[in-house]
């Protein structure tokens, strides 16, 4: 081998080693996301929804590198351990609090931090079967959606309210009316309701700058709750779920998700630029929780001021390690509970004859963010931009990452709930077709 070739060989070897080292470093940074996603979602599905692990692995976890994780369910300690290569994550379930990824704490430490739960006495059923003729007309749509998957998804639950009554309801095999299911980002809309109630009670002022200590020495001190609710904080954020992004790091690596999000620098002047950010919702949830002396006091407030008046008795608002409910993503309720929530906003903040949200809060909710082109209100999506062309413009919606939806249609006095695993690239077209077919049979 000539001297020149030896030099080239050494250079090529150095480059290869550098590339391999970089690849290993990047792969190592993905480990909390890969194993954390598997452990958290499998544990919640098993211990909250009561699903079989094999079903969850075959459906919910069967994508990307997630499908290569090795998962162990420990029913005695109610944990799931997920491994991939040298990476490992553990997720633990606590009664009433759902599942938490262990980040910086041992299982024994987390189990010691169980706060007294408010009572969960059964509440009276507020949803009743409605018009039998309308139910008969919607039945073929419900069957084709859930049983035949005619709309190209895998729904777990489907429910339609018209004039406050159930006119369609269907569940996938193994799931029923009492099965709590994941909200994903529909939880953001519940944070909207919590903010509204606290605003009505005088605990927060949505138009005043939020008094977050970490923001007081720079331009972030001018950010208001209103700007946060409309996703116009101006804070830097990456919501790409397919990469090592801010949202993935927050949900799967961070012990204090709200703190991670609020540590981001300003990228735009507050109130001028709209972009979707799950971190924003966790900032709001952390801010709201800090208005109370303890986690128990905050959870009791949520129960007594929102969930009990709605008739919701079995709710899991899952926490991060810091103790704050993950408002961006991790709320578990039944399909009927999500329907009640939709009906609350359909009825201008009232439910079962009682006002829960302050007057004009729903009107505020559907006020579009100035830079969203009519697509987004206050932690709710809007149809002012015609995203769903076969649905009325007054429709507003709660969206979840895997196809979870609550469609609220005031002009048709209708709420549509769809829960399940539906990560299809054409899902918005599919949802439009579903809405078109439902509205075609509703007078």
Describe the overall structure:
- The protein is globular, with a radius of gyration of 23 Å.
- Helix 1 crosses helix 7 (246-253), helix 4 (132-146) packs antiparallel against helix 13 (427-441) and helix 5 (187-200) packs parallel to helix 9.
- It has helices at 3-47, 53-59, 107-112, 132-146, 187-200, 225-229, 246-253, 257-262, 278-289, 295-310, 335-346, 361-365, 427-441, and strands at 70-74, 79-84, 87-94, 98-101, 154-162, 165-171, 181-182, 316-317, 331-333, 350-351, 354-355, 381-382, 396-399, 405-409, 414-421.
- The protein has a 6-stranded antiparallel beta sheet with strand order 6-5-15-14-13-12. Strands 1-2-3-4 form a 4-stranded antiparallel beta sheet. A 3-stranded antiparallel beta sheet has the order 7-9-8.
- The model has no long low-confidence stretch (mean pLDDT 92).
- It has 2 domains: 3-112, no CATH class; 132-441, DD-peptidase/beta-lactamase superfamily (Beta-lactamase, 3-Layer(aba) Sandwich).
- With 443 residues, it is an alpha+beta fold.
Can you tag this structure with a few keywords?
alpha+beta, 2 domains, globular, single chain, six-stranded antiparallel sheet, 16% strand, 443 residues, Beta-lactamase, 13 helices, four-stranded antiparallel sheet
Helix count, DSSP H or I runs of 4 or more residues: 13
CATH topology value of the largest domain: Beta-lactamase
Instruction: Name the CATH class of the largest domain.
Output: Alpha Beta
Question: How many discrete structural domains?
Answer: 2
Low-pLDDT segments? none
Overall mean pLDDT score?
Answer: 92
């Amino acid at each position: 081998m000539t001297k020149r070739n030896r030099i080239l060989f050494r250079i090529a070897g150095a480059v290869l080693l550098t590339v391999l080292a970089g690849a290993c470093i990047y792969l190592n940074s993905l480990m909390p996301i890969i194993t954390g996603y598997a452990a958290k979602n499998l544990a919640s599905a098993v211990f909250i929804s009561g699903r079989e692990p094999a079903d969850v692995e075959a459906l919910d976890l069967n994508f990307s590198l997630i499908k290569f994780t090795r998962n162990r369910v420990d029913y005695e300690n109610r944990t799931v351990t997920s491994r991939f290569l040298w990476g490992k994550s553990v997720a633990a379930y606590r009664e009433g609090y759902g599942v938490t990824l262990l980040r910086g704490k041992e299982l024994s430490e987390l189990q010691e931090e169980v706060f007294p739960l408010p009572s969960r006495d059964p509440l009276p059923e507020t949803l009743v079967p409605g018009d039998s003729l309308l139910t008969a007309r919607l039945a073929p749509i419900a069957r084709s959606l859930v049983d035949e998957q005619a709309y190209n998804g895998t729904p777990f639950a489907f429910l339609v309210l018209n004039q406050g009554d159930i006119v369609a309801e269907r569940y996938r095999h193994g799931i029923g009316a009492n099965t709590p299911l994941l909200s994903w980002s529909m939880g953001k809309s519940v944070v909207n309701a919590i903010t509204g109630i606290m605003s009505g009670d005088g605990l927060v002022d949505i138009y005043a700058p939020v008094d977050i200590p970490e923001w007081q020495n720079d331009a972030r001190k001018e950010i208001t709750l209103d700007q946060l609710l409309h996703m116009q904080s101006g804070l830097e954020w990456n919501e790409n779920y397919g990469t090592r992004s801010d949202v993935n790091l927050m949900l799967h690596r961070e012990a204090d998700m709200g703190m991670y999000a609020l540590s981001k620098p300003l990228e735009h002047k507050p109130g001028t630029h709209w972009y979707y950010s799950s971190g924003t919702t966790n900032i709001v949830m952390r801010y709201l929780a800090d208005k109370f002396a303890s986690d128990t006091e905050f959870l009791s407030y949520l129960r007594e001021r929102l969930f009990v008046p709605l008739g919701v008795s079995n709710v899991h608002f899952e926490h991060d390690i810091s103790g704050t409910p993950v408002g961006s993503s991790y709320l578990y309720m039944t399909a009927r509970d999500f329907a009640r929530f939709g009906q609350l906003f359909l009825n201008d903040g009232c439910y079962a004859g009682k006002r829960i949200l302050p007057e004009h809060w729903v009107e505020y909710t559907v006020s579009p963010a100035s830079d969203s082109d009519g697509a987004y209100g206050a932690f709710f999506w809007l149809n002012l931009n015609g995203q769903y062309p076969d649905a009325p413009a007054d429709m507003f919606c709660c969206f979840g990452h895997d196809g979870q939806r609550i469609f609220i249609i005031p002009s048709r006095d209708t709420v549509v709930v769809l829960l399940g695993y539906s990560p299809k690239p054409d899902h918005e077209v599919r949802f439009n077709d579903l809405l078109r077919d439902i509205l075609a049979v509703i007078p």
